[in-house]
Design goal:
With about 1400 residues, this protein is an alpha+beta fold. The strands form 8 sheets. The chain has a 6-stranded mixed sheet, with helices on one face. A hairpin with a 2-residue loop joins strand 15 and strand 16 (about 475-480). Helix 36 packs antiparallel against helix 37.
């Protein structure tokens, strides 16, 4: 899907600007430009995960570059045009990633000419989508396409063909013609629905980026039309009060919907439907009643060919055409004929759609994210016939007409597509992606119907929690979370010996009672586990049931992970079912495609591999085993032997409980992939049966082991040679023959010891059945070795991986912003979330990370409790229950009646004990009670703030082994926790300002919706992933041309496979923008970044951290484009999003402050710039420490600002602190440290130039009769540059000149270059610094401050050169040296950009 209509194409401008413009350089907030090598700088500037810090790198007068300037130098050797070696036939091809597009004219039904840019690989469905996005064709749905070639031939295009299969459009001369097609019952209804959608503007999603871009364009046009040479007035950034109270800015997050333009009164299906049989035989399909804005009522007939107005009245049906004989091939064309007001209003709708919209905004994501905020005030609920008709059908994801889709057959057929060439793999991946996405959408709708009770179960006689459902050829079953039962040890009925009928649950109903409660991982073994089974039988049936429920809930996650793992292994002949997990209203529903034949017969007859009874009987098949073994190689699973209940040994390459089944279609399916990785040896107690290791950890461990073995092999080979030499020397003194034998044996022993390691990571395999209740058939030594391998992985996790990520968090190599990004970061390193307590304990020295981990633990613990309450809540109590629970967490609520229990979980026990004794415990505790067991009082009313927080603390200790602090209730970042909790549970709240300090901040009316949270197994494009990984490697090495080519190729593939709206497409756009930015193509970089921003908002959400970084990067690009006034609105938006996701205390927020400060510095607003830098410095010192490199970046930025203001003493003061930090962190020999030293020398020179002593020496030279010779003057100037002080009252100071020469020699010996350009022309009357310090401290930048030196400040109209003033000036910063550096003002609290008035400049008395 690479093409698009030319209406929305971005055109490359002709201007070519320097990416830095001599004033700004991008750094990386995570690796900090100070600590990154030049070769790595591009990888992070600006980056998705990192907010690029801007540091000043002025090069005027030959000053040294800034510490962050190596980022710019990394691109100095690259050509301005990264793709200059390629031939560009059109400007639209440059830097767009679409350089293989060809313009094809289109003739529409109305005769209008339209042009689309297509790729030969585009399918006809893609072409239809491009036309649907254009205003000229957006309302035309039923048509055929005819391709005319330049040789005069015509080709009818079928939907599933590709253009390259029909004709070669690369030769030119091709055109497309749209011709009407025949309507049928389905297509004509789709046409009516599409027409209604076109009328509505409320469903149009207007991105903030498009709104900002439109505003910037308007300002630019206004400035151009006014012919005013002055720059556009830049308003200050919106006040930063939201950083302290972000709840007040919730209303600014959501865009205001566009107001609908009324073009017709109503369009409804007529009550004359369906057409009578005698009219059906002549082509009538549908009748519509239309009332126009003029008040005229028409009855319209839709036939297989046209729409026309018939002669029917309100009560009488007359099929004959009206006298006016109005007809048209589309409904909108007919309405334009019968209603002039409709024609005018419809033109206005199209104009509004064009006005604010980027072409990407017309595209929808296949799996859009849930929004946790809803519009406030709530929009009026208006009449909508189309909405009413859709709601009455209750389809729940099924097709309205025709046969239901066979999801399994579609998916498996797509997997069987040929995939030897890239083009074949693209077609295959696109088909799999589309089918799986449609399945997830249908499964989500079906799960909602299941939970709402609208779909009947197939086993109604079983307990409700074990009901299974088949709807739309999708199999639904419940997975139950019993963490709270295990936590509170509630007593339940003991008569529940439940046999699962779900094929997925056959291995899940195994009680963890078979797993002993035994101790630490390093002391456990399979023998201990087996011996513990008998002791574990004494566990009560209640505990067994609770642990079984927990296993059922946890195994659903593991099953999905295993399905994804086998999908990625992609073994020919081995198939998986499509799968999705839907969490809604406290229930977890597992949706799977239906296994062929499973509902028609006994599954045991088709079982060929694995076990359905927990190893008592194991099936095995050679053909199946060969396929599973091939997949095991990709998953690092070992082929091992297992004993069944009869003692027979079977060789397996998968977990025992997996099931290999031959379906009714003769395909080999593998199911119940609950443990595709070994069990975590650190968790072996009850309830931890499904605590398995992550596949990322296995891959990292194998890679580390292979690398270590390779190094040790080289070392041991050298040791073997040395050992052989030593034994040879002994042989000369003793029995030579005997010693030679010993020498050979010892040398071989050493060599074999090193060769015993694995040569590559593929040879490192693990037994997935160790530390389980299954009996292994191998020798004790082999079993012990397998157990030891798994223990090593667990030890590697706790001893290496977790300490490494803690170190990376401190170094800002990774900076998660919210709970989701923290989870993704942990998972990427192979760390399960159950270890988050250990991560939190290791980040106590990082306040922002400790807060983030603590908040995530609170959110996850609260999620389990809220879901438990929602499962027991009636429909009419959902909003009151959710608002009460939120008030208990963020406010202060008491139980309304009776004595509140100390534990909210235990308080539910009396209610449950009122139910009948024979009822299944899960059914009665978690499902809506029926008949006489209906509750008299809702469960949520018995919960108070104290009991809920007590449950949260207890759950955190039980689940995450983390003790929440006593003041955690008051310390949590409330807005961040609310956002995270709502996203995890699926709650949508009103976007209004909440008083979170009140006892009840939430009302039931604030709960706007409860949405499903979905996890799925949608496949990824492996070819594009490989290309992007390779491109990132090239970027790290500085090979921009190669990186650009690879990203462009990945972009094309992803466009074909997933369409534009996908996160991976956004990644390509981000890196392409980065490369073009550094190549100087600013307009192209902004266009690519705009794409990334829109995709992130659509696919990830408006407030996702990646969206925030997209806005920040857009601001950086505009700033590099010398359009800083356009950049500030994007920075405002970025700060708002960062405050919602992470709060104000985060290093990325501090880095954004540095960016904003440098932008204001370029706008000559030094007072605002200093205050942003002050806040950034405070945050970094508080969050990272005073000696962190990021703190050094802030000090350096302050030095640059003071240098621009002429306050060289302050510049020197701050740069010295920068140097001290760099020496401690990087060492004196590091290039960045030397760079800082150069800056110190420069600031020393400038500080001396501003001293009165220097002026006197200069004047003495001038007045001493030295004539026109400039040599003595230069010597005196150089002496003043080097010396700390100068003797007063002297003329030509020869000693100073000699000292300067000696100093130069010493500097040259030390490797310091004293640049001649540093010698600047010094004014004869430099100003005193006291007025400057007063102005800086007052927070107002004087008008006289320029970009370079400070002009003289007059004293009663006369320039002052009094040395006393200078002496007095020098004491100003000294007094504050131990406190906040001088000149930083009072902080952001005193800054109100909208209200603060400029203070008058302080006058210096004579």
């Amino acid at each position: 899907m690479a093409g698009k209509s030319s209406k929305g194409r971005s055109r490359k401008g002709t201007s070519n600007h320097n990416s830095n413009n001599g004033s700004i350089t991008n750094g990386n907030v995570n690796n900090n430009t100070v600590s990154n090598d030049v070769s790595n700088s591009l990888k992070h500037v600006p980056a998705k995960d990192n907010n690029a810090a801007i540091a000043n790198s002025e090069n005027e007068n030959g000053k040294p570059d800034s510490i962050a300037a190596e980022t710019e130098s990394a691109f100095s050797s690259n050509p301005q045009n990264v793709k200059e070696e390629e031939t560009h036939n059109s400007e639209a091809q440059l830097m767009q990633g679409e350089d293989n597009l060809y313009a094809v004219p289109v003739k529409t039904l109305t005769g209008e000419k339209l042009e689309v840019h297509l790729n030969p690989g585009d399918s006809i469905i893609d072409v239809r989508q491009f036309l649907l996005d254009s205003p000229e064709m957006g309302f035309v749905t039923c048509y055929d396409l005819i391709l005319h070639t330049k040789d005069g031939s015509s080709h009818h295009l079928e939907d599933y063909n590709e253009l390259s299969d029909v004709a070669d459009i690369t030769t030119g001369g091709c055109s497309l013609e749209v011709v009407p097609a025949m309507y049928d019952d389905r297509s004509i209804r789709a046409h009516v629905h599409r027409t209604r959608d076109v009328f509505s503007l409320s469903n149009v999603r207007a991105s903030f980026s498009s709104v900002i871009a439109k505003q910037n364009e308007t300002l630019q046009n206004r400035a151009a039309n006014s012919r005013d040479s002055s720059k556009t007035e830049v308003r200050d950034l919106d006040g930063l009060g939201f950083m302290e109270d972000p709840s007040g800015s919730l209303g600014n997050l959501l865009p205001s919907p566009l107001k609908d333009v009324k073009c017709v009164e109503s369009i409804v299906f007529s009550s004359f439907n369906p057409p009578p049989s005698y009219r059906r035989l002549v082509g009538d399909l549908i009748y519509l009643d239309v009332v126009t804005l003029e008040g005229n009522a028409f009855c319209i007939t839709g036939t297989t060919r046209v729409f026309y107005v018939n002669s029917s009245t309100a009560n009488n049906f007359d099929w004959k055409p009206s006298k006016a004989t109005w007809e048209a091939t589309t409904l909108i064309a007919l309405l334009q004929k019968i209603s002039p007001k409709f024609k005018k209003a419809f033109r206005e709708i199209l104009d509004r759609r064009r006005a604010y919209h980027h072409p990407f905004e017309n595209l929808q994501s296949l799996l859009p994210p849930n929004s946790w905020l809803g519009l406030y005030p709530v929009p009026d609920h208006t009449r909508d016939p189309a909405r009413a008709e859709n709601s009455l059908t209750l389809l729940y994801g099924s097709e309205p007409m025709g046969m239901q889709r066979d999801w399994n057959e579609e998916l498996q057929s797509c997997r069987e597509f040929p995939h030897t060439t890239l083009q074949e793999r693209m077609i295959r991946d696109r088909a799999r992606y589309k089918v799986t996405s449609d399945f997830v959408d249908a499964a989500t709708n079906g799960a909602i119907g299941v939970i709402n009770g609208c779909i009947p179960p197939i086993n109604p006689s079983d307990p409700e929690c074990f009901h299974m459902y088949v709807h739309n050829n999708i199999f639904f079953s419940f997975a139950v979370d019993a963490d709270l039962e295990q936590l509170s040890k509630k007593s339940t009925d003991s008569n529940s010996n439940i046999q699962s009928t779900d094929i997925r649950q056959d291995s899940e109903n195994v009680s963890d009672s078979q797993v002993p409660s035994g101790g630490k991982s390093n002391g456990s073994s399979s023998e201990d586990l087996n011996n513990g089974v008998e002791a574990a039988q004494e566990i009560s049936p209640e505990a067994q049931l609770a642990e079984s429920e927990q296993a059922t809930y946890a195994s659903a996650n593991n099953d999905l992970k295993g399905t994804i793992a086998y999908q990625e292994a992609d073994v020919d002949g081995l198939y998986n079912l499509a799968m999705a997990i839907i969490d809604y209203r406290g229930h977890r529903v597992v949706a799977q495609s239906v296994l062929p034949g499973i509902l028609q017969g006994d599954k045991s007859e088709s079982l060929k591999y694995g076990s359905v009874d927990n190893g008592k009987k194991i099936c095995w098949n050679e053909d199946f085993h060969s396929k599973v073994s091939e997949a095991a190689k990709c998953l690092h699973l070992k082929e091992h032997s297992v004993l069944d209940g009869s003692g027979n040994a079977f060789k397996l390459a998968a977990p025992v409980e997996c099931k290999g089944i031959v379906g009714g279609d003769d395909r080999h399916y593998i199911l119940d992939l609950l443990r595709v990785t070994p069990r975590d040896a650190n968790y072996t107690g009850p309830g931890s049966r499904f605590c398995i290791l992550r596949s990322e950890l296995i891959a990292a461990f194998c890679q580390a082991q292979a690398s270590e073995k390779s190094k040790s092999k080289e070392t041991n080979s050298e040791g073997a040679d040395n050992l052989a030499t030593n034994f040879q020397n002994e042989a000369d003194a003793d029995n030579k023959e005997l010693t030679n034998e010993k020498t050979t044996e010892n040398a071989e022993e050493v060599s074999s010891a090193s060769a015993g390691g694995y040569d590559n990571c593929d040879e490192i395999v693990f037994n997935p059945n160790v530390f389980t209740e299954f009996k292994l058939a191998g020798s004790p030594e082999e079993i012990a070795a397998d157990e030891d391998n798994v223990r090593k992985v667990g030890q590697y996790l706790t001893d290496v991986v977790i300490p490494n990520i803690i170190q990376d968090l401190w170094q800002l190599d990774v900076t998660p912003m919210d709970g989701q990004s923290l989870t993704e970061t942990l998972h990427a390193r192979g760390i399960n979330v159950r270890y988050i307590g250990k991560v939190a304990d290791g980040t106590k020295h990082l306040p922002h990370m400790w807060d983030l981990c603590t908040n995530e633990i609170v959110v996850r613990s609260s999620k389990h409790i809220i879901k438990d309450v929602l499962r027991d809540t009636e429909d009419h109590d959902l909003a009151p229950a959710l608002s009460h629970l939120l008030n208990c967490i963020f406010g202060s609520c008491q139980a309304p009646a009776g004595k509140p229990d100390s534990n909210g979980i235990q308080s539910r026990t009396p209610k449950k004990e009122q139910q009948s004794a024979g009822k299944n415990s899960r059914g009665r505790a978690r499902w809506k009670s029926k008949g006489g067991s209906r509750k008299s009082q809702p469960l949520y009313t018995k919960i108070s703030s104290e009991s809920l927080w007590s449950d949260i603390q207890e759950f955190a200790m039980s689940k995450y082994k983390f003790e929440l602090p006593e003041d955690s209730r008051s310390r949590v970042k409330k807005i961040c926790v609310i956002r995270n909790l709502c996203r995890k549970v699926g709650i949508t709240v009103a976007s209004r300002k909440y008083d979170l300090n009140s006892t009840t901040p939430f009302q039931p009316s604030d709960i706007l919706d409860l949405c499903p949270v979905v996890r799925h197994s949608v496949p990824v494009c492996s070819d594009a992933k490989k290309l992007t990984d390779a491109a990132k490697s090239h970027m790290s090495a500085g090979s921009l041309n190669e990186a650009y080519d690879l990203f462009t190729e990945a972009f094309k593939i992803l466009q074909q496979v997933t369409g534009p709206m996908h996160c991976e497409v956004a990644t390509c756009c981000r890196y392409l923008a980065m490369i073009t930015y550094h190549a100087g193509e600013m307009d192209v970089a902004v266009a690519q970044q705009q794409r990334e921003l829109i995709i992130n908002e659509t696919c990830l959400g408006l407030d996702h951290p990646d969206t925030a970084h997209s806005y920040a990067n857009m601001a950086l690009y505009y700033h590099g484009w010398e359009k800083t006034e356009f950049a500030l609105p994007y920075m405002t938006r970025a700060l708002l999003l960062l405050s919602l996701s992470s709060g104000s205390d985060h290093p990325d927020v501090a880095a954004t402050f540095v960016n904003v400060a440098m932008m204001y510095k370029e706008l000559k607003k030094m007072n605002i710039s200093l205050r942003y830098l002050q806040e950034a410095l405070k945050k970094n010192e508080r969050l990272l420490g005073e000696k962190h490199i990021q703190t050094a970046v802030c000090y350096h930025a302050l030095a640059i600002i003071f240098n621009s203001m002429g306050a060289f003493k302050l510049s020197l003061q701050h740069e010295k602190k920068t140097f001290e930090i760099l020496v401690k962190q990087l060492g004196e020999d590091d290039p960045k440290t030397q760079e800082s030293l150069n800056w110190i020398n420069t600031f020393k020179i400038r500080e001396l130039q501003a001293r009165p002593e220097f002026v006197q020496a200069f004047q003495a030279v001038t007045d001493g009769g030295s004539g026109s010779s400039g040599a003595p003057t230069n010597k005196s100037v150089n002496a003043a540059m080097i010396a700390e002080t100068l003797p007063r009252g002297r003329g030509v100071d020869e000693r100073a000149a000699r000292a300067a020469a000696i100093a130069r020699k010493k500097a040259a010996a030390r490797g310091l270059v004293v640049r001649s350009q540093v010698q600047v022309q010094v004014q004869s009357h430099p100003p005193p610094l006291t007025p400057l310090f007063n102005i800086i401290n007052s927070g107002v930048a004087p008008d006289v401050l320029g970009n370079g030196d400070v002009n003289g400040v007059k004293k009663n109209g006369v320039r002052s050169s009094d040395p006393a003033d200078a002496t007095k000036d020098q004491s100003v910063p000294t007094q504050k040296q131990e406190q906040t550096p001088a000149g930083l003002g009072k902080g952001l609290a005193s800054l109100d950009a909208k209200k603060q008035k400029s203070k008058p400049k302080p006058k210096v008395e004579a």
